[in-house]
Specification:
175 residues; 3-methyladenine DNA Glycosylase II, Chain A, domain 3; Alpha-Beta Plaits; 2 domains; 4 strands; flat
């Protein structure tokens, strides 16, 4: 019985030591990755060759990807990344796509057959609907990544440019 008590005390002491060490020596992650990720448009579109903005930011921070692979970020995004990293800006990589104005997906609900392929393709869950019923897009959640357009078998999804409003208008950066 004394041996069992001694082992329990040993395990409790080691558990306490591990808990203390985990809190005391906690690593928050790479702050550079967070800064790079904050500059990316958060479309999660994958056009850069990575499954989302966070993996792309991690690859940039580790030197595995270039700063000009994000078409939704456009030239302004490349410039912001270059400023942050202290490197020369480069033209947007044509192999990853071209910069376009911000757009939102709109589903023609009269044509939609409820196949759910667009639901599966949307990386931010901005599409609502169920199998065999029409779907609709939550415009405030849509990032304009266009990933829902290609899988639609009836071509009922169209990208509509988002008009600029006073709330999101910014003057162009000085050159």
């Amino acid at each position: 019985m004394l041996a069992v008590l001694a082992i329990c005390l040993l395990f409790a002491g080691l558990g306490g030591l591990l808990g203390y060490s985990a809190r005391r020596f906690k690593v928050e992650g790479d702050p550079l990755v967070k800064k790079i990720d904050a500059l990316l448009p958060q479309t999660q579109c994958g056009q850069c060759g990575f499954p989302g903005c966070r993996p792309y930011a991690r690859a940039i921070a580790q030197g595995e990807a270039d700063i000009n692979q994000c078409p939704p970020g456009g030239d302004d995004g490349v410039q912001a990344l270059a400023d942050l990293l202290g490197v020369e800006p480069k033209p947007l990589s044509a192999t990853h796509g071209v910069a376009k104005p911000k757009a939102v997906a709109v589903i023609d609900e009269n044509i939609c057959i409820g196949c759910t392929l667009c639901l599966q393709a949307c990386p931010v869950d901005a599409i609502l609907g169920a199998a065999k019923y029409m779907h609709t897009v939550i415009a405030q959640e849509c990032t304009g990544c266009e990933l829902c357009v290609a899988p639609c078998p009836v071509d009922c999804i169209h990208m509509v440019p988002v008009p600029a409003t006073l709330a999101d208008w910014r003057s162009p950066p000085p050159r």
